[in-house]
Request: fold
Amino acid sequence: MTPSPDHSVALVGNVSRDGDDYEATRAPKRSELIASILRREILDAIAEGRSKPGDMLPSEKDLILRFRVARPTMREAMRILEVDGLVDFRVGARGGAFMRLPSVDIAAHHIAILLQLQGAKVLDVWDLQACMEPTAARMVASAPTPEGIGRLKALTVSLGAVTGDAYAFASQTAQFAAELMSQSGNPTFLVLGGILHRINIVEGPVMAKQSVEPGINDRNILANKAQKKLVRLIEAGDGDAAELFWTKQLRLWRPHMRRYLGATEIIHSL
Reply:
């Protein structure tokens, strides 16, 4: 079937008698169809090991001949892939279009915008992470590795040195959570954990407010002790105990998080 010409819009839908509930879909432009084909080819080639990020795509001339389209259409298709984070353009004698993979930063960038538009609060993001971390702890404990345990222990030691600095402690706690999810072996946890870590949900004014609160150092010392106990449970391979312990800890911490973060909106600053 021949794709519809560029800039044409085909609407198909049902209209009720009063004119409401009109459902319409736009037929994809040829540039979008080309981008979809190339997107699949790039991802398949990288997944199967036939190509790798940094490999050069065919020249614009070759792609135009392959798809039998005008140069503006081909360039629009390539711009779509660039927005997807799958293509990187370089100029110069060795310039052209090169394969790349979307980064967590790009995903976090778009998700942060969507969360803002939905009116999400910082506490909403914390709640999601609090649901994921105990499960991740159980998964890590099912097959702990010396290297992974070493990284978690190093983070707890680093956290123990900054208990009096609310901003540093919060930032390194986020690193601890991201490391926990990255070791789970679950690709979804790996990606989501990275995205949550990169979203800028800890703003200076919020952390500054906590920094002057009496007892912040003592509370963070207790939190650090809990982190160290979690690592010991994971190292022992006791997944059920690790999951239960971390679930209880996060529930204990939620009133504090609600007190300081509950009304704070996500400020997109990536």
Summary: Residues 146 and 235 are 8 Å apart (CA to CA). The first helix runs from residue 30 to 47.
